């Protein structure tokens, strides 16, 4: 079970495969052409995105992984657009620029978020396979995993040799396959076909148990460590040679576009494997990512913040103790979805019923509650040398366990002003007899149209009172 989304920036993953440029024309259609029974689209906007293997690399970069792409592009406008996109994504390029080669290019025309037509321009990239193999070898040092993204454009014509290189170096290699010849992927660590691709090789299953047996058999026959079959509305199933199959239900509530969903799945799977997830938990992370991706239009990426947010919404993690950069990410994601952020702060030394009631009241003012906690040094400056009684790590752990609290973040200053300026909450709350205008950060929040409130603590409950009670009990 996934309890947290790890930091992925310590991992380096190499993607090799068929890169292409995805172009989108967005417009409106209100009439049928008098020349033929087709809709007339009034183009309003255009957009280009890195597609195919380049989209896999883009997904890795969005997760924070240090990604590299090994691919063939033509010396043309789409090829230059891919190179520019990779630079913007900070993906390491190991590109073979083939003179006279036409870069794979897909043009999609959409109206009201519905794809009307796709126009493809492509030719085989197999002629550059030798040059690609050299770039592949050059890209491998310090790689934690490799993804081979096969779109049958010819880049991976010698895929067996690339798998062999990875096996010789002890690097996990994940393959997104194409075609009916899976034998060429023998020895890969993980393979991620969709259900149609799987059935074309393993045969149509007569029942779920038959499907499971065919998946297990494919793992054994091809020498795979794991097999992940994506099954559309049925979610995805993960097989290993020894464990019982696991089927994960589809995550998306609304499906706008499945374009590029397989790229997101294999990128998330590889990132999880690099982070030492089990195959089953890596599949769970990939399933979560896929649910986010297909709710977007066109080839799309998924960020670590989106994963944390999605995990949090499902009540299975993604909450608790965070650092400031992670807090900024998850708050931005929550705000993009129209949610209200509440912020409060304090020492919270010896948590008591007054704190709990106060935090419950604060949470009721919005959708997500962020609690800033003074570190030990700042507590000593504010409360005296004998405080805190409870160290920072334990104070944060207790706060994170409360149902009302979504994210807990430490701060080292005497005030949380830097935190407030970083996230600019919709509601700023302080407990006690503070006047709203006296609360640190109130000007920041009010200037952005937020609200500042002072809530009363529960009478008779205080940390000082608890400490005095303990002392008196001890002296008696």
In short:
With 476 residues, the chain is an alpha/beta fold. It folds into two domains: 12-19 and 49-96 and 123-318, Ribokinase (UDP-N-acetylmuramoyl-L-alanine:D-glutamate ligase); 321-475, HUPs (Rossmann fold), CATH 3.40.50.620. Helix content is 37%, strand content 25%.
Which short descriptors sum up this protein?
alpha/beta, 9-stranded mixed β-sheet, Rossmann fold, 25% strand, UDP-N-acetylmuramoyl-L-alanine:D-glutamate ligase, single chain, globular, 476 residues
Describe this structure in words.
There is one protein chain. With 476 residues, this protein is α/β, with parallel strands linked by helices. It folds into two domains: 12-19 and 49-96 and 123-318, Ribokinase (UDP-N-acetylmuramoyl-L-alanine:D-glutamate ligase); 321-475, HUPs (Rossmann fold), CATH 3.40.50.620. Helix content is 37%, strand content 25%. It contains 16 helices and 19 strands. Strands 5-4-1-8-9-10-11-12-13 form a nine-stranded mixed sheet, with helices on both faces. Strand 8, helix 4 and strand 9 (172-176) form a beta-alpha-beta unit. The relative contact order is 0.09.
List the helices and strands and how they pair.
Layout (H helix, E strand, L loop, with lengths): L11 E6 L1 E14 L6 E14 H11 L2 E9 L2 H13 L2 E7 L5 E8 L2 E8 L7 H11 L5 E5 L9 H11 L2 E5 L13 E2 L3 H8 L5 H15 L3 E5 L5 E5 L5 E3 L12 H14 L4 H15 L10 H10 L6 E2 L2 H13 L4 E6 L6 H11 L4 E7 L1 H8 L8 H9 L6 E5 L5 H7 L3 E5 L10 H6 L3 E5 L7 H13 L1
Parallel strand pairs: 1-4, 1-8, 2-6, 4-5, 8-9, 9-10, 10-11, 14-17, 15-16, 15-18, 16-17, 18-19
Antiparallel strand pairs: 2-3, 6-7, 11-12, 12-13
Helix pairs in contact: 1-7, 7-8, 8-9, 9-10
């Amino acid at each position: 079970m996934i309890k947290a989304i790890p930091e992925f920036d310590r991992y380096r993953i190499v993607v090799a495969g068929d890169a292409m440029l995805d172009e989108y024309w967005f417009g409106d259609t209100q009439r049928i052409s008098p020349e033929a029974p087709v809709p007339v689209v009034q183009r309003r906007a255009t957009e280009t995105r890195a597609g195919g293997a380049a989209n896999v690399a883009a997904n890795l970069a969005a997760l924070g992984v240090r990604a590299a792409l090994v691919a063939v592009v033509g010396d043309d406008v789409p090829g230059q657009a891919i190179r520019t996109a990779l630079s913007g994504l900070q993906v390491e390029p190991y590109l073979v620029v083939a003179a006279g080669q036409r870069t794979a290019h897909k043009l999609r025309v959409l109206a009201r978020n519905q794809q009307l037509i796709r126009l493809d321009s492509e030719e085989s990239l197999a002629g550059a396979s030798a040059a690609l193999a050299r770039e592949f070898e050059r890209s491998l040092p310090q790689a934690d995993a490799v993804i081979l993204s096969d779109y049958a454009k010819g880049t991976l014509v010698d895929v067996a040799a690339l798998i062999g290189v990875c096996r010789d170096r002890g690097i996990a290699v994940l393959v997104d396959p194409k075609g009916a010849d899976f034998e060429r992927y023998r020895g890969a660590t993980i393979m991620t076909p969709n259900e149609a691709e799987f059935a074309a090789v393993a045969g149509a299953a007569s029942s779920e148990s038959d499907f499971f047996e065919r998946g297990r058999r494919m793992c054994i026959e091809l020498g795979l460590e794991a097999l992940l079959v994506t099954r559309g509305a049925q979610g995805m199933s993960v097989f290993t040679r020894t464990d019982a199959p696991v089927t994960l239900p589809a995550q998306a509530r609304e499906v706008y576009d499945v374009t590029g969903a397989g790229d997101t799945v294999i990128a998330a799977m590889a990132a999880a494997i690099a982070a030492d997830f089990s195959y089953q938990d890596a599949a769970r992370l990939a399933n979560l990512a896929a649910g986010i991706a297909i709710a977007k239009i066109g080839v799309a990426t998924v960020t670590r913040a989106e994963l944390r947010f999605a995990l949090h919404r499902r009540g299975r993690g993604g909450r608790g103790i965070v650092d400031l950069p992670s807090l900024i990410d998850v708050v931005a994601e929550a705000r993009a979805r129209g949610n209200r952020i509440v912020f409060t702060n304090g020492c919270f030394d010896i948590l008591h019923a007054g704190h709990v009631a106060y935090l419950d009241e604060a949470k009721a003012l919005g959708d997500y509650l962020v609690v800033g906690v003074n570190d030990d040094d700042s507590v000593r400056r504010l409360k005296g040398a004998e405080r805190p009684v409870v160290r920072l790590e334990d104070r944060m752990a207790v706060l994170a366990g409360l149902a009302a609290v979504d994210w807990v973040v430490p701060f080292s200053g005497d005030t949380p002003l830097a935190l407030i300026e970083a996230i600019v909450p919709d509601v700023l709350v302080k407990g006690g007899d503070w006047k709203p205008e006296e609360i640190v950060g109130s000007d920041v929040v009010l200037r952005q149209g937020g609200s500042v409130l002072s809530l009363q603590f529960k009478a008779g409950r205080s940390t000082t009172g608890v400490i005095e009670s303990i002392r008196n009990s001890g002296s008696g």
